[in-house]
Amino acid sequence: MRPAPDQPRGSRQRSLLLGRGTWGEVSRIGDILRTETVGGALLLVAAVVALVWANTPWRDAYHGLSAVRVGPHGLHLDLSLAQWAADGLLAVFFFVAGLELKREFVAGDLRDPRRAVLPVLAAVGGMIGPAVIYVAVNSGAGGALAGWAVPTATDIAFAVAVLGVISTHLPAALRTFLLTLAVVDDLLGITIIGLFYTDDVHLAPLALMLVPLTLFGVLTHRQVRAWWALLPLAVATWALMHESGVHATIAGVLLGFAVPVRRRQDGSGCELAQRFERRWRPISAGVAVPVFAFFAAGVTVIGDGPLSARLTNSVTLGVVAALVVGKTVGVLGSTWLVQRFTSARLAAELSWWDVFGISILAGMGFTVSLLIGELAFGAGTERDAEAKAGILLGSLISAVLASIVLRIRDAHYRRVQKIEELDLDEDGIPDVYQAGDPRR
């Protein structure tokens, strides 16, 4: 068989940066991104409604709705609607993220360390870059430094929604890179929350939490599907995590990690994980995240002071600079360093301009960024509002810049897409993903 165009003679052993991956992985990611596109549209609508409402004469009604408390007082779960959205609904989001992370690194393409190193290092760089810039801008601002982690997250739903709006035809490798980057980003974000934004930890409920979590893991490994057995254990795990003082959304990640994803010899091992992901991803993307966005994005920027003063404070400017510049430099720089100090090289059909565009798009922080902002500064505080303004403005600038950069290459993306969709033998698998195809 002839060497492929992106694997010249004598360099077969060299790994590719942003290679296509396997057809199974590409097909699965395509399904995920279609769900996230719809979720991103709902997220955008929810954020716009909240932002507009919070800046009208009826803003008190919006803030009053957010403050309505429901839940059993005796169990310390009499939370406001905004808290239920942040602590409860986002646990669903992180449950799906936990499933996705485990699948990627245990049963997906990223179980190969050579494939995993790029999105992991890009996500780490995409966390360090924004943090450094935010700290530099706020070095003399005292308590503002608590928000150093606000601009470190990438929101995949928002990013995919932008791709849908601009109608760009990203190659499979770039779509896969964006999703895996965002998934690793979520893991780093929840790690930051657990390590840096947990004040008082109560060990007794934290230890008790392990009981329902372990039972949940045992049942899922036995392929138990009954909701009446699994859901109470999941709720108990979440409630005890909340009572322990550790942010309750971490329970969602642990529950996702507890579900088996590796296929057994009889072929049944990962069926439950797939079932959970198919059932809960639409709920996460279509309900949990948009509702959280509705309660979190309603920052009032029209008030007694001038608008310029509200948008030029150090927290807002730090978040904007970190998302727009820090994310781009962090992701792009990490990718360049991987190819500079390893034998890996960029896939033939891609250029560094494409990596530049995706790096800018990674600056769209929203869901996890808003959550970290509330934890860092306190929900409803002045600095929390400043951080939210920075997140919204920085994400908007990143979206516009990424749209311009990626649209420039859209004609090339269309040609690559035609190759990736070509199926001459009509077996349902594009020829480029089959070993015998010379274009692979």
Mind sketching the topology for me?
Elements lengths: L15 E2 L5 H31 L5 H9 L1 E2 L8 E2 H27 L5 H25 L18 H11 L5 H25 L6 H19 L5 H18 L4 H10 L12 H26 L10 H5 L2 H28 L3 E2 L5 H10 L5 H11 L4 H27 L1 H12 L19
Question: Can you walk me through this structure?
Answer:
The protein is an all-alpha fold. The chain has 2 domains: 21-192 and 248-421, Na+/H+ antiporter like domain (Na+/H+ antiporter like fold); 199-246. The chain is built from 16 helices and 4 strands. A two-stranded parallel ribbon has the order 1-4. Strand 2 (69-70) and strand 3 form a beta hairpin. Helix 7 (203-221) runs antiparallel to helix 8 and helix 14 packs antiparallel against helix 15 (382-408). The chain starts with 15 loop residues before the first strand and ends in a 19-residue tail after the last helix. Residues 1-13 and 436-440 have low confidence and may be disordered.
Q: Which properties best describe this structure?
A:
2 domains, Na+/H+ antiporter like fold, 16 helices, mainly alpha, two-stranded antiparallel ribbon, 2% strand, single chain, 440 residues, disordered N terminus, two-stranded parallel ribbon
Quick description:
By secondary structure, the chain is mainly α. The protein has helices at 23-53, 59-67, 81-107, 113-137, 156-166, 172-196, 203-221, 227-244, 249-258, 271-296, 307-311, 314-341, 352-361, 367-377, 382-408, 410-421, and strands at 16-17, 69-70, 79-80, 345-346.
